[in-house]
Amino acid sequence: MKKAYVHKAPLPYSTLGGLVEDLVNILLVKKLTLNEARKYIYLPEESVDNVLFVVEKLKQNYEMKFQSIKIYSARIVTTSGPNTVSYALEFRHPLILTDDASQGRKIKRGAGTDPEEAQFLCNELNTLLSDPKYWDIVGYREAINKFSERAIQIFYTGARLLDVAPMRLI
């Protein structure tokens, strides 16, 4: 695992896409502009080409999140078997980048066989997706008390949340 440094604090990462995702979240939480951030980000283990890639993707993703935060919505997908009907939830996740480091990886999670439960989960997910206050560690702590355990599991599994107090990732 490689390390980048932000404000001299180590930031471990395994892929450049994951690094970009983490850096964008740090910039948004710390309310830094890209120009300010350049003074604080150091990538000692990367080639010049990789650093340029990170800078370009960081610029694209930061501007996208900062200037016009994309709000996604969940939908229910029905699948039928020989004797059963089951439901799944599909949505693009605002905190998880795609393989090419753009915002909104597509997520699909099972929602059981009860249509009312599937609709309930879909409504909760849409609330989580529509309000950026739930997209960091402080919002996560609030969401735990407000939403069902299943909705929390679906939304936060795989998302990197920034703990704003001691700049570390969980």
Fold topology:
Layout: E1 2-6, E2 9-13, H1 16-30, H2 34-37, E3 41-42, H3 48-67, E4 75-80, E5 85-97, E6 103-112, H4 115-130, H5 137-146, H6 149-156, E7 162-163, E8 168-169
Compute the number of structural domains. Answer: 2
Percent range for β-strand residues? 25-35%
List the strand order in the largest sheet. Answer: 2-1-3
Number of strands: 8
Cα-based radius of gyration, to the nearest Å? 18 Å
- Assign the structural class, choosing from mainly alpha, mainly beta, alpha/beta, alpha+beta, or little secondary structure: alpha+beta
Low-pLDDT runs of 5+ residues are 163-170
Mean residue pLDDT = 79
What does this structure look like?
It is a single chain. Residues 163-170 have low confidence and may be disordered. The protein is elongated. Helix content is 43%, strand content 26%. It is an alpha+beta fold and 170 residues long. Strand 1 (2-6) and strand 2 (9-13) form a beta hairpin. The chain has two domains: 2-67, no CATH class; 75-169, no CATH class. It has six helices and eight strands; from the N terminus they run ββααβαβββαααββ. Helix 4 (115-130) packs across helix 6. The protein has a three-stranded antiparallel beta sheet, covered by helices on one side. Strands 4-5-6 form a three-stranded antiparallel beta sheet. It has helices at residues 16-30, 34-37, 48-67, 115-130, 137-146, 149-156; strands spanning 2-6, 9-13, 41-42, 75-80, 85-97, 103-112, 162-163, 168-169. The two termini are 16 Å apart.
